[in-house]
Amino acid sequence: MKEKIVLGLSGGVDSSVAAFLLKEQGYEVIAVYMINWKDTTGTLSGACPYEEDVLIAELVARKLGIAFHVVDLSDTYRHQVVDYMFEEYARGRTPNPDVLCNREIKFDAFLHAAQKFGANKIATGHYCRCDSITDTEGRVYYRLLSGRDKNKDQSYFLCQLSQEQLSHAVFPIGELEKGRVRELAGELGLASAQKRDSQGICFVGKVDLPVFLQQKLSSKKGLILEIPADFKAYSRSYPGDLEGRIKKQARPYVYRASDASIMGEHQGAHFYTVGQRKGLQVGGTEKPLYVLSTDIENNLVFVGRGEDHPGLYRKALKINHQEVHWLRPDLALNVGESSEYSVRIRYRQALQQARLYCFEDALYIAFAEEQRSIVAGQFAVWYRGDELVGSGAIST
Predict the structure, then answer these.
(1) CA distance 381 to 393
(2) Which member of 7, 11, 161, 189 has the greatest number of CB atoms within 10 A?
(3) What is the extent of the structural domain holding 293?
(4) What's 127's DSSP letter?
(5) CA–CA distance, 187 with 192 (Å, rounded to integer)
């Protein structure tokens, strides 16, 4: 009797080829399309994005001769992902909903739905890999590994999965290059073969973010203020012991209106994020303006000229202990310990050399080189070789 596996079939080329590979491997494949979002407010497509995707997914399933079902998880998605987005933006942080979607929906709510079909494993079309190791005492640990195609590696988005979730996960295309996935889809005559990759928020699509956020966050006019490149705080030194120096380097710059000159107005500080260039609607400067910081309480947006502005760069960041997640709990640092890792602070960023320090108050990441646009609310992830070992939402 074949082992059952439930595949999240999105209507995209990646999950379509994953379905074929699973069938080739001898699984009884049950394809399930997840409806996670129905509202079109703020979306740029102007149409409900899932309707066409459901049709394509069903055509793929029919072509491959596998069962196809649709489950509606939209209420769960709204409460556990979208509400989280609104809360984070309201606090002046910039969340990554795709990370939460994988932790709360695809590998949690979806897993429970899959078990109703009699399956104990779920598969997705992510470009990553998973295996397991056994330590000297017989304990099994599951490892999340980056995809073979380094240009498409999506392990970052799975950085909050638990050992329990990884134990049920299968990633059929993790060993393949994207080009080969496209070729296979074409050779098989799948309806998704020429479908473009999805963009924007997971399951919501590409959005006009201010319009989307205005569902719960109201517009409020405020000032856009420019900070000069020679602002006094940029020349600060970091004397003292190692711990004190790292903590100082991790602190974001603090600006006041008296430090700046008025450049224009905005519609709400919570609509902007550190490093943002587009959407300021202020012209006439020799270099483009970038967001350096936002003050939610006073509704101020601070900007600087040019991508080389010193206010965009810092050498360390902080993650509160309650927001640190070790995919490999056996490798977790104890207070007073430190270790070298390769780190990225956003998807597609090249891995950066850094050292993690576990101090009494929080986990700190000190980089070998200054990092541009460290954004509170985004996830920092750390790797040892190909293995993603841990992650955490950036506090400062």
Answers:
(1) 9
(2) 7
(3) 222-312
(4) S
(5) 12
Q: CB–CB of 281/264 below 8 Å?
A: yes
Instruction: Out of 213, 244, 264, pick the residue that ends a domain.
Output: 213
Pair of tokens at residue 303: 């900007």
Confirm if 339 and 356 have CB atoms less than 8 A apart.
Answer: yes
Q: Tell me which residues are annotated as active site.
A: 101, 202
What does the alpha-carbon distance between residue 396 and residue 319 come to, in Å, rounded to a whole number? 7
User: In terms of pTM, does the model score above 0.90?
Assistant: yes
Confidence of residue 238 (pLDDT cuts 50, 70, 90): confident
- The string of DSSP letters for 339-382 reads EEEEEESSTTPPPEEEEEEE-SSEEEEEEEEEEE---TTSEEEE
Instruction: Please state the separation of Cα 85 from the chain's center in Å.
Output: 12
Residue 44 — very low, low, confident or very high, per pLDDT cuts 50/70/90?
very low
- Number of independent structural domains in the chain: 3
Q: What is the pLDDT of residues 75-122, one digit of tens each?
A: 888 888 888 888 998 899 999 888 988 999 889 988 888 889 999 999
Q: If you average pLDDT over residues 136-143, what whole number do you get?
A: 96
Distance CA 292, CA 269 (A): 12
Encoding tokens for residue 214?
């205005």
Domain termination residue (choose one: 312, 327, 361): 312
Kindly write down the DSSP assignment for every residue of 29-43, as one continuous string.
EEEEEEE-----TTB
- Rounded Cα distance between 267 and 292, Å, is 17
- List the beta strands (DSSP E) in 64-192: 67-72, 122-123, 128-134, 140-146, 169-170
User: Do 39 and 163 belong to one domain?
Assistant: yes
SS3 325: strand
